[in-house]
DNA ligase (ATP)
Amino acid sequence: MSAEVAELPDGIYDGELCAMDAKGRPNFSTLKSDIQRGALDRLVFFLFDAPWLDGQDLRDLPLSERRRRLSLALEDLDLPATIRLVDPLPGSGRDLHLSACKMGLEGIVSKRLNAPYRAGKDGSWTKAKCRPALEVVIGGWKTEGLRFTGLLTGVYRDGQFVYSGSVGTGFTAKSMSELLPKLSAARSDVSPYAAGAPRKTSDIHWVEPILVANVEIAEWTNSGKLRQASYKGLREDKDPRDVVFETLD
């Protein structure tokens, strides 16, 4: 990848390195595992912007002009498939977001065409994520001292209750007032998991697998764990035994 990037004109580029899945979609878990293994065949560098190009500082120019200059600088180059210039998609942000979610993408980034390039979040761009919702069974909770820090979850695979990761965000005062008494009532001295459970420590508290939670996630990792899970509430109408592992395709 470094050899391909070295063929680009001298500049500072804004982009994102992605690993593509079998359907041609970026996959964060695949990216991590490929980098760890040194596998490069699925890596693609997507170019968004160029705050510095051919010895010129472009940061004060509007995005539309920076994009025009970047396109001109690359138009005569035979770019490899591992480097791709991202084409902007003008139109309704809502429609684009819905399309991205239907395609199984993580979301969209919207930018103001008249905005200069600034580091950090300055209000000139925003990211709208697609957050698939699903059910998981609660297998325990975690604390730091007396403070609640998250849930331990699981799903059924081939009839066995297996660990599926933790949920650490999305909790409100109202949802906690409903959740904590139910966790205490379901408390158990024995791990409910048949496989994959974290090691028991003083800050881990097991429960009987009788509570179903609704969560939103970014994706399943390659190891079958939730990524960026956010708690949305309890599902009292769902039988825990019906909560099985489901892909997001």
In short: The first helix runs from residue 2 to 6.
